[in-house]
Amino acid sequence: RSSAMAKDPVRVLVTGAAGQIGYALVPMIARGIMLGPDQPVILHMLDIPPAAEALNGVKMELVDAAFPLLKGVIATTDVVEACTGVNVAVMVGGFPRKEGMERKDVMSKNVSIYKSQASALEKHAAANCKVLVVANPANTNALILKEYAPSIPEKNITCLTRLDHNRALGQISEKLNVQVSDVKNVIIWGNHSSTQYPDVTHATVTTPAGEKSVPELVKDDEWLKSGFISTVQQRGAAIIKARKLSSALSAASSACDHIRDWVCGTPEGTWVSMGTVPAGLIYSFPVTCRNGEWTIVQGENFSIFPVVFPLMSSQGRS
Ligand code: NAD
Ligand code: LMR
Q1: Which percentage of the chain shows pLDDT scores above 90?
Q2: Ligand 2 mean position, distance from CA 208 (Å)
Q3: 90 Cβ contact partners less than 8 Å away, ≥ 6 residues apart
Q4: Sheet holding 210-213, edge to edge
Q5: What is the pTM of this model?
């Protein structure tokens, strides 16, 4: 423990920290789930004035939990104070959709938030700050952030499709009755929206007899082409229908997975899905990460269909 404490703390911003994802996410960060069990952190929590009291309550609970890695907590409604010096920014602040809405229906409310927060990040965040946009519509908000923070390197602005990736792993694990930790290399192509394309063509399961192909093990092409895809595409709506609130613990956990793999690297032979900016658009691709940089997986015989299909329909549902 003493050498672990020698590392300098990393400053992590969570916007919308008084909300339900924020409430699940900040203890994960403070416990080292996002940046590792030997990485001290300082949490910067931002919310809006109507949520200031609740935000202060979250800060009180963080103190009460006595997290050894937590070296400081800023709870504020001032965007400049929140963004100053942050190394990682997890942008959760905004409004969730309700039952019967598509994610694009919260666009008018949420997009404006990202214009102003982009400027604050650009001016006050640490150089090389890594940004993860969670709030919906996540791809669009990330694009706005990129446009209004031109000095943040494009490769540092990402959005969350890891939740969709993890949902796909979960569905395959349930279908094949195998451990989710033995399933890997699914791909989410496109937007975090109902037009996304979950792809298992290259996914594998680790078995005692070696790596086996998911399509070969599933042996149910019909399910892979319809039921599986629509379940993953519609999982957010199914959670809202069941909980009357949108996903929170799985969103928070997937946000930790996204940042951990980006900063600490993906395991050998494994890729993950990230919404990234390879050519002026924010789109989910399979990536591997090393030394804090993501690289889109090359050289695979990926079908062009899943790439083109969501692009063509991305102006539709969100
Ligand atoms: P929530 O309503 O519980 O919390 C959102 C918080 O953001 C609230 O505390 C609110 O006061 C705050 N907020 C609003 N405007 C703000 C601003 N300008 N600055 C800072 N904070 C602000 O919502 P939630 O369930 O935590 O969801 C948050 C967002 O994440 C929603 O847009 C939701 O749709 C999205 N989401 C995305 C994914 C994903 O996979 N990308 C998954 C789940 C939820
Ligand atoms: C999700 O996928 O759970 C989130 O994007 C919330 C939503 O609106 O579906």
Answers
A1: 81
A2: 36
A3: 12, 13, 14, 15, 25, 132, 134, 255, 259
A4: 183-184, 204-207, 210-213
A5: 0.94
